[in-house]
């Protein structure tokens, strides 16, 4: 449908026959939105153990790099070779375990964070009962006496599974907007 | 009149007093002072060899990456003949940045402002509307190319310097090459980069990271204590890893070697002379290597280096001024021990800002499966989200803030823990060798070389 | 459900038996969201008198301080002793009265503000017909020729009452994310 | 209903008899929100040709200036004489054509952008089947190795037409919040 | 060669010319110049006593708060013996910030970088793996503690200075103590802090706030005119409050005293000699006091001070260099008159940035109910959202911007409104006393003391 | 001792060496150096005439706009007598910014801090509570006004300078006035502003924009190549527009004139002497003019100017130091050719930041319909979203970044394309005239004047 220069920036599923859209306002859409707001609250309130409960056992959680590439090379502006995160349930759990120990100094004192979630778009995923959820986020992060909020924006491209009474996160790819991150670490989850 | 060549800062402080040999102290102001920073850009980053990347990042003719030498942007490009060139990314016409992308491929770098064009080797090709000679006739075309840095490829690693007539790269490494070769130069294919480097900004002076790289073992015990909490068995495992051999150099390079027999149960007999190289290698190959690689490693290293590698291999350390290297054992749940291989550079971005650049590597002979495991391991521990290094990058900014305070900048950093032991018996390698608990000597050497450079005339 | 380190960062009501959630997508939820968007518009358009109409006569409006405290002391990271705002209907009305006079120089010329409201989560409050509304906000504030937007992010923890044809704000607690605010004053409402 | 000082900051339609509100949660509201999220995705993914398909042939697209004016002169804080954008379908198409050529250097390499859309409020427009959609946006823009996100916030005051299977944008007025913009150009669409 | 000790700026301007006694002008560049700022950090903030907080913020052994002396972070901690200590928050090892939290309680401050540990009094405890002596043997442990500031507790207020051999705190206050005592030292329990201070950044030079605190009454008439609009009765109430007595000092301290008989109808006979202290106190106790407190106030103050308090009490003012104090009457709707008691410090954060720190207080004997009312009143008027001070904090940045302009910085601030009146008859207090309409004298004194300090050698 | 009046920078570089006549090079450091920037604010922006706006922006008595002269804010106000005044926007009392709004109308500018009041002409009116003489008695009221700049209104354009005794505006324009008059001074009503200027920040040194304005034709060929791609017919239309006549001045002003006969088919006979002024004007009036305006244009210009206008009109260029002007033909789809008339100033906001201010104009006699078309055209091409200038504003920051690098700042900008042609035959105008392909001469003149000013004592 489009001969635009940068198809690669589009989520992969758009290249195929369009999957069924979950309408905004539908009950399913609303339930998923609720799960996202709850996830944001959980992370912002430092309830990390609770957060891991929302991760599927087979979760894959990645954050590719962004490169500044010329317009004609835009398909290479997202680079999935060496990523900022490349995690599974085990490594995410280990990260949380560390945060709950006594010596996770990168986050002690903890950052004060806020994850504003917007632009949620949902389609059916290939797997039955699973949904592809794309959303935008703005993360604000405040540490110590710094009067400037550190910011990070981007898109999450997730697959969530409907477990009936709740959802679980089957995969997340975080597309950041910066080639050089403005924060000294990703000691927080996105 | 004060000029940059006098060895005195504008407030009257002799530069030599910033680093005080009598008490092994360094004035904290070096972490925040803009005048010192500007001098460093000339005298340190304008003079030494700087790591810019790896040849495997630009495998084809025309490939390029945009990198930084100190506070200058450079183009690292491969020419048609396969040679690698480093050119100042500043158009000789009006100073526009010629290359604007992090990476790409082009036979000609064309400045978007007025169209002056340059080859991958920096040579001036011409300007638009050739008959109008818009580049004038005052200077010959040969003087209108991009300014070229001197390049040295060491085991695939791309180094460059502005010091065209200065010491060779080998002179720069000096004695330490014996050890670095064990890491970078051991296999036939050599290292291979796994992707573009992670990059992020830390609000800290580059030297807060630089001095740590050379080689502050001690901080692991406290700052990275979580390692003990999570992986220890309730005792103080970390403390035992504080023992080893540090190797340093008058040029500020440093490496930490650790005794395999003390570190790994399976290696407890590695240094009692009872086992052959083959036996030991098969039990525990060098980090990042596989048993199959033994032959090529043997072909590249001397017997003394092989023995060192099987007893006290260097694992972490730095290269002056702004390189950290890690080539460490990464035990797997299945009992295998793979490696985690990474290089960082700390790019100065002002007196209170650095860019952390993190490349992850493997041996070119590593299987895809092992590559995946090694990469994930490394991301888990080092760089942006690395559980070890996220602590470091939240620490350096505080040091820099301290150094900004009017009283704080008068404080000193102290390197008074002195190793007085002789080298271990039968130590095979050259260099300054410090045996035992990790002390401050190699870091002190780092500062002494910094001082030497800062005192040199331009 | 969670033995996490920082229960104090969670809204108080979470510590008790969970109150009934107002589902996203329900009519009630949507009506409340509408009230929030209208409130943001009212404030951003400087229609302060109109804003006071949405305040209950018994409104309580507070903004605690945030402190940088170690992880183990996270329950003390929100401090409600000396707050940035500690207001009731009378003081809020007086603030509005001042803004509409001729000499409220802190806001004359007025800031150009934008209140982006996201992550709205609603439960029933204890009082019948009242709802606990938690939302995130990003405030952008522009003054004079300054080309950098001043930012403030945080969470509002509100109680609103359903009056049938409209809602009123019974209480608001604003949880900011900074220990040292980046703005020279709170001459605006959050 | 309000004697507030700054009626001019209110959208024009508020000055007249209030038009019918499209309720949040209604199907129509949800469909329009979907269109906005899709538009944001289209622009952020650099699918500009696709974006022009959403523009009505008679589209009017403007971005007035903001001036710092005293409180009593707030009606003059939005100035529609010399605007930042003053476009129609032809000029917008030409802008897209340029972006898809080989020499749109202002955006080559392209900015990495994110358009967070919030606070969507909809009423019926005068024209049958058309709707007045007001929304807030936060634009983040990242170029080259710059580790600070450039930000722009504001309100879009749009008219969209319901074409049955999709909507089209009949007009857009972008109200920015800065008197002096913090970006070197508007080589992107808002 | 130019050094910091010469009384001349690097552009050749004599420092003494920045403040011009002949015409009572101050060059506006003092509000933006970085070189002047750096000098101030040494000569003003490195030399005078600085307010850091109140003893009631750290009531228990081990309690600490992190505060700022000029541009340096310090730890204010209570030791096991109850004594309060102020230490530079910079690790003597490598300069890491030792304390990272705004407040807390700990018997030992342990640096997270390498684990050096310090007592609340700053003394060095030791470093990890004691047997390895990682702190070396060059310096004795007694020299490895945190750098300690000199501390003075005045009526619970915690002051400190880096000027170890300099004037005592009482010398610093000088004659003004007679007045300050009336505010801070009047009750047995003294002041008590109501919570941690509000903190926010104002993009202004600290002196824009500092000079106003000492004591610019006149700006209220215009900048805070809304007070008249909202609380006045159509006339110009504010103008009448411009009359009073200002008390100043060669050390730049200043207070404004206001005649109760002019300010409050109920006090119209307070200074005609017809009423006893008791009678007057019961009608209108000092701001923040209750009738019940009379006995303890009498026990703490001299009869002259009591008489002053019942006729012309000091209400607002400052303490050089960066303290503003308010202890003002807060009339209530029910006819009662309570008090609003606050202290601010303006922490320099660069030539064009200050941190506004606002503590709210009450007398320790105040009932919970009155505390609540007083606190709400104070928040309504002062600090972050305070209706009075929000105007000030939006004003100072404009002055600082003016001072950045190349022409603007050549302008002057003028203090040419001179009070030529004799002190009021029967004035009981010491100091420089200015009777009548609020003029520029006390602010001018502030600048003259700033000049004196700026001219002193380091 | 180094002072601002010595012709040497603090690192010992002679200022004259920054611009090297022998090789027509300029050191790139001029685009980033703070010391140079500070000197410029004195010696360039403190000395030359600066464009502030247009009289039609403030048509009524009391109208004002707030504008910038270099890094200083000024009030541009119309007095009751219709005269226009420019005053430093810094209160003589304590340095507060007096005017806080971008525009407005007031008979009296009252400072919000303490209420000092000033007339639109800057004169001091008084301070509150007049009887208390809060402005003191040291200085007479006549010395307490806002500092006034010297003003010159040229064809409605408002210029001002701090150089009270310096050259007149006409001296400043010199020979170039003959050409500028053809643009600004041609109709009876003169230019009229279409609204307040667009304003936005570019992270670039002001000279990156300034030198381009005077008059870099060549960059269009590459940086604005999209013009060819979109509007060309497959050939290289742009290259042909590179030919023309550039007119320069020792004061750095510059204009590009283009031959109408070469540019427009309809004008192919314009310079062969076969057509009268009327005939030609009716076919193609000056950009922004309509056929009806001929009589008034003729009344204002000399016959030589008329002939120039009908053959080689100036279309784009600059006025030293920071003005760009465009008065170009804007062909319409209906075959009509209207004009696009704009002026920019590049306000310095630090060594690496400028504010781009863009006014759009029309002749006051232009119909509303044509105004709309012209305005839309101009917005489409110039300013914030202009398709031409968005490329420029993304380019200048890269130059400034290059100039920050320690090696980059040692590079030079080159102006070595020298026009060696004689002026065209029958050229009627004065000035330095360069015929043919656009070369670097006028830009070089710009730098030479910058050098001259930078070498002048304060
Ligand atoms: S600046 Fe590169 S071609 Fe002119
Ligand atoms: S810096 Fe504090 S222990 Fe090393
Ligand atoms: S600063 Fe303007 S009146 Fe005082
Ligand atoms: Fe570390
Ligand atoms: Fe005030
Ligand atoms: Fe251009």
Q: What does this entry look like structurally?
A:
The complex is a heterohexamer, with 3 copies of chain A (190 residues) and 3 copies of chain B (458 residues). In chain A, 18% of the residues lie in helices and 36% in strands. Chain A has helices spanning 27-44, 48-52, 89-99; strands at 21-22, 55-63, 65-66, 78-79, 85-88, 112-124, 130-142, 150-162, 167-176. By secondary structure, chain A is α+β, with helices and mostly antiparallel strands. Chain B is of the alpha+beta class. The radius of gyration of chain B is 23 Å and the shape is globular. Helix content of chain B is 26%, strand content 25%. The two termini of chain B are 17 Å apart. In chain B, strand 17 and strand 18 form a beta hairpin. Chains in contact: A-B, A-C, A-D, A-E, B-D, B-E, B-F, C-D, C-E, C-F, D-F, E-F. The interface between A and C is large, with 44 and 40 residues. The structure holds FE2/S2 (inorganic) cluster (3 copies) and fe (iii) ion (3 copies).
Report the C-alpha radius of gyration of chain A, rounded. Answer: 17 Å
Strand content of chain B: 15-25%
Task: Specify the number of helices of chain A.
Answer: 3
How many strands, which pairing sense, and closed or not: the largest β-sheet of chain A?
7 strands, mixed
Residue share in helix of chain A: 10-25%
Proportion of helical residues of chain B: 25-40%
Give the ligands present.
FE2/S2 (inorganic) cluster, fe (iii) ion
C-alpha end-to-end distance of chain A: 32 Å
Radius of gyration of chain B: 23 Å
How much strand content do the residues of chain A show?
Answer: 35-45%
Oligomer: heterohexamer
- Form type of chain B: globular
Output the structural class of chain A. Answer: alpha+beta
Number of strands of chain B: 22
How are helices and strands ordered from N to C of chain A? Answer: EHHEEEEHEEEE
Mean pLDDT of chain B: 95
Largest interface: A-C, 44 and 40 residues
């Amino acid at each position: 449908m489009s001969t635009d220069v940068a198809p690669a920036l589009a989520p992969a599923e758009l290249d195929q026959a369009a999957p069924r859209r979950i309408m905004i306002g539908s009950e399913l859409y609303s339930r998923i939105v609720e799960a996202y707001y709850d996830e944001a609250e959980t992370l912002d309130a430092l309830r990390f153990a609770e957060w891991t409960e929302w991760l599927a056992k087979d979760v894959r959680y990645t954050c590719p790099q962004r490169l500044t590439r010329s317009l004609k090379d835009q398909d290479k502006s997202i680079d999935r070779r060496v990523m900022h995160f490349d995690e599974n349930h085990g490594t995410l759990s280990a990260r949380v375990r560390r945060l709950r120990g006594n010596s996770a100094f990168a986050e002690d004192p903890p950052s004060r964070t806020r994850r504003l979630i917007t632009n949620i778009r949902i389609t059916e995923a290939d797997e039955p009962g699973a949904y592809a959820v794309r959303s935008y986020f703005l993360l604000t992060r405040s540490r110590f006496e710094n009067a400037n909020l550190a910011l990070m924006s981007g898109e999450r491209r997730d697959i969530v599974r409907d477990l009936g009474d709740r959802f679980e996160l089957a995969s997340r790819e975080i597309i950041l907007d910066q080639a050089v991150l403005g924060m000294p670490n990703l000691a927080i989850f996105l | 009149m004060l000029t940059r060549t006098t060895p005195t800062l504008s407030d009257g402080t002799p530069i030599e007093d910033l680093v005080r040999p009598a008490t092994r102290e360094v004035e904290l102001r070096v972490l925040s002072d803009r005048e010192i920073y500007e001098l460093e850009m000339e005298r340190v980053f304008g003079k030494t060899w700087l790591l810019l990347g790896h040849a495997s990042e630009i495998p084809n003719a025309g490939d390029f990456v945009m990198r930084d030498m100190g506070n200058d942007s450079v183009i690292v490009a491969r020419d048609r003949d396969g040679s690698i060139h480093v050119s100042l990314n500043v158009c000789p016409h009006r100073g526009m940045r010629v290359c604007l992308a992090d990476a790409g491929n082009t036979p000609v770098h064309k400045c978007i402002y007025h169209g002056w064009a340059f080859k991958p080797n920096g040579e001036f090709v011409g300007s638009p509307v050739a008959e109008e000679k818009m580049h004038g006739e005052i200077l010959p075309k040969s003087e209108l190319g991009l300014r070229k840095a001197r390049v040295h490829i060491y085991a695939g690693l791309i180094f460059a310097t502005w010091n065209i007539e200065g010491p060779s790269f080998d002179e720069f490494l000096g004695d330490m090459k014996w050890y670095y070769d064990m890491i970078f130069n051991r296999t036939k294919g050599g290292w291979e980069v796994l992707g573009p480097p992670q990059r992020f900004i830390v609000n800290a002076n580059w030297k807060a990271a630089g001095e740590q790289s050379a080689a502050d073992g001690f901080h692991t015990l406290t700052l990275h204590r979580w390692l003990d909490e999570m992986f220890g068995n309730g005792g103080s495992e970390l403390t035992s890893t504080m023992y080893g051999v540090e190797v340093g150099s008058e040029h500020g390079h440093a490496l930490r070697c650790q005794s395999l027999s003390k570190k790994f149960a399976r290696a407890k007999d590695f240094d009692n002379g009872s086992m052959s190289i083959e036996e030991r290698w098969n039990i525990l190959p060098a980090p990042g290597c596989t048993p199959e690689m033994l032959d090529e490693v043997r072909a590249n290293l001397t017997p003394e280096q092989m023995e060192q590698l099987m007893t006290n291999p260097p694992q972490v350390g730095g290269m002056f001024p702004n390189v950290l290297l890690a080539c460490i054992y990464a035990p797997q749940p299945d009992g295998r021990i793979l490696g985690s291989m990474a290089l960082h550079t700390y790019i100065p971005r002002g007196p209170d800002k650095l860019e952390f650049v993190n490349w992850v590597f493997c041996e070119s002979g590593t299987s895809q499966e092992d590559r995946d495991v090694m990469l994930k391991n490394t991301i888990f521990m080092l760089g942006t989200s690395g559980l070890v290094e996220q602590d470091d990058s939240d620490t350096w900014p505080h040091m820099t803030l301290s150094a900004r305070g009017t009283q704080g900048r008068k404080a000193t950093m102290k390197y008074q823990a002195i190793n007085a032991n002789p080298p271990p018996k039968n130590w095979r390698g050259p260099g300054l060798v410090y045996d035992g608990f990790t002390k401050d000597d190699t870091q002190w050497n780092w500062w002494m070389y910094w001082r030497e450079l800062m005192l040199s005339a331009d």
